[in-house]
């Protein structure tokens, strides 16, 4: 099994948007300084794509070589990936800027075949005059980082709720005022080329059509990941999910190991066992869209909160379905809360529509959750957990054979 990395990277970018969706306030840095603001989700949903659009236009104006242009595209989508690990922590505003660069660089270091891009992510908040986060200056800053800095600033300064003609001159002035301070003359001249046309500003204004706008700018990327490399990607996703809560710190990896063990016991071939492990690593990625105050609530959830929790399986499918080549894995992962009697979520499917693999994932998820500590209870021992699973078999919620396979796999 091989999957192209050009479907993985946009999915990673989506997770950043979901992480930002789940917080009430977001750090915003522009030429007027760093602030914490109430989040306007529409702005941040499209931030990576808009930054990618700006970066690719700058890359064309700078006549980057083919390989650098491809690297620029990948970095522009991934530049804020470090936010997923810092938005839930009690960092100061100034700390968040540097820490998200470090976190993002560290994540990219572990992405197979593009780990060399980590420095470009690390230095995307540097200033040409050396007054940036890590005090790199001038040509010490990778050209990709320099382009990302300008792209980030332009998008931060741009107000998607105001007409472009009311703000483009102000943004041009701000950029001009910071030449040889934040930006090099070389990058500034590229900006002058792309910003002279109204089309550039109209493209920023029309979020809904951004996919069409950027489509012709996206370079072909022929990088394939094998199964073990996909497992590495899955572990990155799992770490992003589990970083949200101390109570689920190892939940995704635990599900992955259980699913793998049960698959081995059933007798699946090696590749299918690894696919099940990958589904376990991916299954809760949608929880990035759920506020931590709900995930960590020390008490029963009200109706609205439970509805928000249930939506995580929907978001899991949304992310995984954006990746070509993992359709089976997406199905197994996103159906882990469906029930045989049709009382599950988010689709309410039942019976024969739930494959053996989906049934195994559901049972592994319930067992893992029961045996883990939660804000409102301590984790159960194995016997207590299986007592509950057996009761769920009796009421028609979960599969008896899947439960027996889990028992036998655990010895």
TrEMBL record:
User: Sorted alphabetically, which InterPro entries does this protein's record hold?
Assistant: HD/PDEase_dom, HD_domain, HD_GYP_dom
User: Which SUPFAM superfamilies does this UniProt record tie to the protein?
Assistant: HD-domain/PDEase-like (SSF109604)
Listed name of the protein:
3'3'-cGAMP-specific phosphodiesterase 1
According to the entry, every stretch annotated as the HD-GYP domain falls at 226-411
